[in-house]
Amino acid sequence: MGTIDATMPNLDSVMNERKAFDETKSGVKGLVDGGLKRIPEIFHCQPDKYQKANNTSHVIPVIDLVDIDNKDPSIYQGIVGKIKEACETLGFFQVVNHGIPLSVLEELKDGVKRFYEQDTEVKKDFYTRDMNRSFIYNSNYDIYSPPALNWRDTFACYLAPPDTLKPEEIPVVCRDIILEYGKHMMNLGTLLFELLSEDLGLHPNHLKDMDCTQGLFALCHYYPPCPEPELTVGTTKYSDNKWIDIAPVPGSLIVNVGDLLQLITNDRFKSFEHKVLANKIGPRISVASFFSTGNRSSSKLYGPMKELLSEDNPPKYRETTVADYVTYFVKKGLDGTSALTHYRI
C-alpha cells in the first residue's frame, strides 16, 4: 500500500486557489482592500528567497551623465569606463543627470498610482492575460508557474515601435504621462546603447543597428502594504544568493544588463538576479522599462556578436529570436533560475 507525504501541497488545490484569485480580477490590492490580515499560502516563499542582503561587499556605482557632451575626451572616456566596469562586474549601475525631468518621473509615479487606485470595477475592464494587447493589466503574469506568487500587481504598456503603440488603449488616468515618459526613455536608451557599444570596442551605432532600440515597453508595478512581509516577496529573484541592497539616490534611475545583452556579448556583460521585498508600508510604485520587442513576431536571430568572438572566446550561446526568448521566459516563470541556461551551448 502506498504512502502520502503530508508535507507536499495538494497541487489541484493550489491551482484552484490561484485560478480563484485570478478570476477576481482585483489583484493583490483587492486582497488588501478587503481587509486581509494574513496572506494566502499561494504567496508564501521559502526562507532562502528573502534572506537578508549583504551591504558590505559591493557598492552600486552612481554615474553622472551631466558631462556626457563634454568635448574633453578624458571626461567622456571616464564615463564610458565607469559604465563598462559596472556592466562587466555587477551588471547594475545608477545614472543621474540623465535628461528625464524629475517632474516627469514624479508624475509618472502619480499616474501609475492613479490607475491602481481607481475603483476595482473600472480596472477589471483592463484585466487580461492576452500578451498581444498593447496594455496588459494583471497580477503575476506567470500565475500558474512559480512556487509562490509575488505580492504585486502589474500593467505592461508597449511604447515602441510606433506600429505597436495604441494610445487609445492606455487608460486616460495615466495615458499622457506614460506617452511623455516613453519619449524621454527612448532618448536615454539610445544614448546608453551608444555608450555600451563603445564599451565593447564597437561603433557607437552598433547595438542600435542591431535593432536594440527598436522596441520599448514599460512594466508598472504596484506593491500594496503586506501584513506578513516576512512570508513573501514583491518580486522573486530572477536572472548565488549574496544579495546587495541598492540604496536609492533621489532623481536617479537604476540600469541593469538584461539577459539578451549578456547573450549577445557572450558573457562580457553580466545579467544578475534581482528581487523586490514586500513591506508592511505601502504602496510602493516602480516602473521598469525594457528595450525589447517582446513577443512580437520577428525572424531576426540574436547570438554572440561575431566581432567579440575568437579562438579563445568561442560562442557560449545558441542563436534565438527575441520572441522565442520571451515566450520561453514567460512559460518558465519567475522560478529563481536564469532563462539563459536554456540557450547555453
Automatic annotation (TrEMBL):
| Oxidoreductase in keyword set | yes
Transmembrane portions of the chain: none
For this entry, the protein name equals 1-aminocyclopropane-1-carboxylate oxidase-like protein
Q: Where is the Fe2OG dioxygenase domain?
A: 170-294
Q: What is the lineage of its organism?
A: Eukaryota, Viridiplantae, Streptophyta, Embryophyta, Tracheophyta
The family annotation for this protein states: Belongs to the iron/ascorbate-dependent oxidoreductase family.
Q: Which Pfam families match?
A: 2OG-FeII_Oxy, DIOX_N
Alphabetical UniProt keywords:
Iron, Metal-binding, Oxidoreductase
